Amino acid sequence: MEKSAATTQPEAATQAPDEVEMQIRGLMMDPVTNMPIVVLKDVASDVVLPIWVGIFEANAIAVELEKSAPPRPMTHDLLLNMARGLNATVRKVVVSELREDTFYAVIWMDQAGEMVALDSRPSDAIALALRWDCPIYVSRTVLESSKQSAASQTINEDDMKRWLENLNDDEMGRYKM
Question: Is the pLDDT of residue 52 over 60?
Answer without folding.
Answer: yes
